[in-house]
Automatic annotation (TrEMBL):
One Pfam family in the UniProt entry: LmeA
Organism of this sequence: Microbacterium oleivorans
Database matches in InterPro entries: DUF2993 (IPR021373)
Source species, domain of life: Bacteria
Protein name according to UniProt: DUF2993 domain-containing protein
């Protein structure tokens, strides 16, 4: 009697291979899920520790694509970090940071940008610390900001409205008058300066507003726009913030000037 065993052994071998592949795939998937859970927690804890944020600060970390291969090569191609109501020096704002090529084991990223949104109340708080700024007259009027007050001319109180553009200049937020409304008449800032400049006083001047003192020194203001949600400020971030304690500390107005 003849016994045929080779086909059974081959079938058994394929079964073993399939089982091994399935187990390895399951391990890879499990490792990916673990990495995707652990990496955001590590990023969050580092931010809280290095920037002195509250321990219960809610921080969302997003990493597109598979995490494990990026960890293996030592660089995360894209990472987004966002947090609402981040409080620094008594000023609260919503922050989003987008990082390109974030290093895993030391080094520099290729670029990083932060967008900070300050609502009207927070902007008013900042402006209240600017010497001489008429903060009680301030309000947002996208795409500009506005001052609504009165101008005393020859004993008469005339309603004065001022529109100011917002821009980033040499690391400062600068508010510059663009148009004036005297009573019911609209006048350009240049025309008003020429005609009654001394009478409107400080309303005709530009106002530099230092934001550096509220943010880590590694951040440099590069852009400002005024939207319905508030003043939206864009900052470039030096990767020195990853390792230099000085870069992690709030800056000063002398840094921006």
């Amino acid at each position: 009697m003849t016994t045929v065993t080779a086909p059974r052994r081959r079938r058994r071998g394929w079964v073993v291979v399939i089982v091994v592949v399935a187990v390895l795939a399951a391990l890879v998937v499990a490792a990916e899920f673990a990495a995707r859970a652990i990496v955001p927690q590590v990023v969050r804890s580092q931010l809280i520790e290095n920037l002195g944020l509250p321990a219960d600060q809610a921080i969302d970390v997003e990493i597109p694509g598979l995490v494990l291969p990026q960890l293996a090569v030592g660089s995360i191609a894209q990472m987004s970090v966002s947090a609402d109501d981040v409080d620094v020096e008594g000023i609260s704002g919503d922050v989003r940071v987008d990082i390109q090529d974030a290093p895993v084991r030391g080094g520099d990223w290729s670029s990083a940008r932060a967008v900070v949104v300050l609502d009207e109340d927070q902007v008013r708080t900042i402006l209240s610390r600017v010497d001489g700024f008429p903060v009680d007259a301030f309000r947002l009027a996208p795409p500009e900001v506005a001052l609504d007050t009165e101008l005393n001319l020859f004993g008469a109180a005339i309603p004065l409205g001022v529109r100011l553009s917002a821009a980033a200049e040499d690391g400062d937020l600068v508010l510059s008058p663009t148009t004036f409304r005297l009573g019911d008449v609209d006048v350009s800032a240049d025309a008003l300066r020429e005609q009654v400049g001394p009478l409107v006083g400080s309303f005709a001047q530009s106002w530099p507003v230092c934001l550096a003192q509220y943010l880590p020194r590694a951040l440099t203001l590069t852009g400002v726009v005024v939207e319905e949600r508030g003043v939206v400020a864009t900052f470039e971030i030096d990767s020195a913030i990853l390792r230099d304690e000085t870069a992690q500390q709030p800056g000063s107005c002398s840094d921006a000037s």
